[in-house]
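Lab notebook: predicted structure, single chain.

Context: the supervisor wants predicted structures on file for every construct in the current expression panel, including those that have not yet been purified. This is the next one on the list. No modifications to the sequence; it matches the entry in the shared construct table.
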Amino acid sequence: MSAKAHRDLSEHSSLVVYQFDRDVADYLYVQVAEHLARRIAAGELALNTPLPAEVRLAQQYGVSLGTARRATELLRERGLVVTLPCKGTFVAARPDIEATGDAAMEEPQVDKRVSTQKFDR
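Prediction complete. Output recorded below exactly as produced.
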């Protein structure tokens, strides 16, 4: 799966439009989420910066608003972005990239050591 980018050559537009192979077995929202994850991993979408609004994502990827929303939801489920009410959606983490180029979502590392320190009340 690969997205091809081209610039909208309209007079006042700086919009980059990504196109996907719609014959691929994955749902479009999965393809959009995977492409966004690769952009995050590459640093194109930097940590702690806002993700483009869902309406803008829908325009950039040539998909419906619902597809853009589902892609954003998938990124949230993977822990790559966080959404703050009235603020927007922000890049929260970078995925590891496997040799195949697909975003590999690792489980978060959890410290399983139990503290033996006693606390006074």
